[in-house]
């Protein structure tokens, strides 16, 4: 188990792969952040209390900003939609890059990495479209559990019992979504080791077979790498919250920590897929 975790964790630390991840994440972020930045700058830059507002917003400033944001909701909604579409368009490219790096005997250079990502784009895009089914089923099941928890909460006497039921249902929803995402990554791993397989549904089904045959190894590797990635991201986010970007040095520090959080999430996603590809290759060797 230790080897199955350390190998993909180290293999996913490829600077070209992480740089591509950072670049692809940056574009949708900018599409959403720049309109918000422009709106905030127009409201706060020329205020006589700008230095104090840069450190913390008071209730009056928050109320004024809420009013302005309400007036500009259409423009911000358009920016959000553009960011979402860009993220969806780039997601298969990132998945293709991770698949290319995972099956390469050595870390590929940027040109082969991009070529492999583009070659895998159609199959990864089909997998993204198919993801609506398992993720939709997971969300529907989790939502039903939340509804049951709310109904239970109306009939109990102690508020703590209602809160426990709600938190349990929310945790079940998160686990269902994570499990659905695991099956999708297992399908991507199946597509990675068989380039002749064009069908996303067939690849996903084969990934379910891997999960059924190697349940302990798949759940252990995927869960452990997810836990490590989320823990690192949470620690970096906590450090980011301690910084008040009111001057250049704290601003650069906050920006660096934000980029590190994005890179940790990218590393986690790559390491999980590396681990699944490694397990799938082991199954093929045994077969």
Output the keywords.
globular; mainly alpha; 287 residues
Radius of gyration: 22 Å
Structural class by SSE content: mainly alpha
Main β-sheet, in a few words?
none
What are the low-pLDDT stretches, counting only 5+ consecutive residues below 50? none
User: With helices defined by DSSP (H or I, 4 residues minimum), what is the helix count?
Assistant: 11
What does this 3D model show about the protein?
The chain has helices spanning 2-11, 15-44, 50-55, 59-71, 73-103, 110-130, 132-155, 159-193, 200-213, 215-241, 248-286. By secondary structure, the chain is an all-alpha fold. The chain has one domain. Helix 5 (73-103) packs across helix 11 and helix 8 packs across helix 9. The longest helix has 39 residues, at 248-286. It is globular, with a radius of gyration of 22 Å. The model has no long low-confidence stretch (mean pLDDT 87).
Summarize the helices and strands and which ones pair or pack:
Elements: H1 2-11, H2 15-44, H3 50-55, H4 59-71, H5 73-103, H6 110-130, H7 132-155, H8 159-193, H9 200-213, H10 215-241, H11 248-286
Short description:
It is built from 11 helices and no strands.
């Amino acid at each position: 188990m230790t080897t199955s975790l350390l190998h993909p964790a180290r293999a996913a630390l490829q600077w070209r792969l992480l740089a591509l991840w950072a670049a692809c994440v940056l574009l949708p972020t900018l599409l959403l952040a720049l309109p918000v930045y422009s709106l905030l700058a127009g409201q706060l830059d020329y205020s006589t209390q700008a230095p104090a507002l840069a450190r913390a917003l008071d209730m009056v400033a928050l109320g004024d900003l809420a009013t302005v944001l309400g007036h500009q909701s259409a423009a911000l909604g358009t920016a959000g939609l553009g960011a979402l579409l860009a993220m969806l368009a780039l997601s298969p490219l990132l998945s293709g890059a991770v698949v290319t790096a995972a099956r390469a005997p050595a870390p590929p250079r940027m040109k082969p990495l991009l070529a492999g990502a583009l070659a895998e784009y159609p199959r990864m895009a089909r997998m993204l479209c198919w993801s609506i089914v398992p993720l939709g089923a997971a969300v529907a099941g989790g939502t039903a559990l939340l509804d049951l928890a709310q109904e239970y909460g109306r009939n109990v006497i102690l508020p703590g019992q209602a809160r426990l039921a709600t938190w349990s249902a929310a945790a079940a929803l998160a686990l269902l979504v994570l499990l659905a995402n695991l099956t999708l990554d297992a399908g991507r791993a199946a597509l990675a080791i068989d380039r002749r397989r064009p069908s996303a549904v067939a690849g996903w089904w084969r990934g379910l077979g891997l999960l059924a045959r190697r349940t302990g190894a798949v759940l252990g590797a995927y869960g452990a790498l997810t836990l490590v990635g989320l823990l690192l991201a949470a620690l970096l986010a906590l450090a980011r919250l301690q910084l008040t970007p009111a001057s250049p040095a704290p601003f650069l520090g906050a920006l660096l920590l934000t980029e590190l959080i994005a890179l940790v999430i990218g590393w986690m996603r790559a390491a999980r897929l590396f681990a699944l590809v490694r397990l799938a290759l082991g199954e093929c060797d045994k077969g």
